Input
Amino acid sequence: MKEHTISEKNKDQRLSKYLQRLLPGAGSGFIYKMLRKKNITLNDKKATGNEILAAGDIVRLWLSDETYEKFAHEEEISYPSLDPDIIVYEDDNIIVINKPAGMLSQKSSDSDISACELLCGYLVKCRGFTTEQFREYRPSAVNRLDRNTTGLLICAKNLKAASELSEMLKERTVKKEYITLVKGKVTGNRHIKGRLLKDESNNTVVIGGEKSEGSFIETAYTAVKFCDKLNSSVLLVELITGKTHQIRAHLASEGYPVIGDPKYGDQEVNRSFRKKYGVKSQLLHAYRITFPKNDGVLAYLSGRVITSEPPFEYIYKEQ
Output
C-alpha cells in the first residue's frame, strides 16, 4: 500500500488528474477501475475521481509494489508538437489556440492524440518544459469544443491557472461567442431556453421545453447578415450554458440548423454546400472570448478580449 498526503501545492485539483500524474504509465481506464474497486481511496472512502482535493487529504493506493512501480515510472513526453501557427495568445499561464476541425479538445480513449497532447509536445519542444513540471501539472484544455467545431480553445500551463479558469467557466463569467452559418432567414436577436437530454447510444441530444427532462440550457443569438443567394444567415451566438452539442441542437430545434452539421443539419442543404464550397463539417466557430474581472493569478486578463475569424468567412463575406 502506498499513501500520499495532499500538499498545498497539489490542492484544488480533481483526484483523477492527481492520480494521472502520480501514475503516468497507467491509462485512465485502469485508474477508474481501481477507484470503483476501492483499490484507490480518498480519506479511506470510496471515490469517483471527481473530488476536488484539499491540503491534508490522504490518498491510499492498495496496489502491489510491482504494479505501482510499473505505472509510476517517469514518463517521457514524446508527443508531436502543436503547430505554433494556430496559437492566438500565449503567456506564462495560458495558451489560447485556434483549434482546427478534426482535432479533439481532449482525448476520449488512451490512444487518442488531442489538443492536450499536442500542447504538451509544444511546451517540451518550444518552451523547455521538463518531466518534473508535468508531474506537478499536466497542461491541458479547460474548455471543450466538438471535434469538428473550430475556434478558440483555452489551455492552462499550470495548476493555479487551471483552477482559476475552471472556476470562471463553472460560474459562467467567461463570455463565449460563436459565429455560425445556418439555414434560413433569421432577423433580430433571441434568448432561448430549454432542456437538453443526451442519447448516449448514438451520441446525440434532444431539445425539449423548459419543463421537460434533461439539463437546463440557455443560448442567445443575434442575426448578423442574411445571404439571399445562399438562403442562409450568419449568426453571432453566445453560449450561456455549455452542454454537449448545445448550439447545434438548440438552433436546429428553432428551425435554423447549422450548415454542414451531420447530426442535426439539413442533409440536402449540406450536400449542396459540400458540392459548391467543399464543406465537410459544421460551420460553427468559437469566435470570441471575453475574460471577467478577477483578482487572482490571472488578474492581468481582466476584461481581455481574444478573437479568431471563422475559416468559412469566404463563403458569406461577398454575399
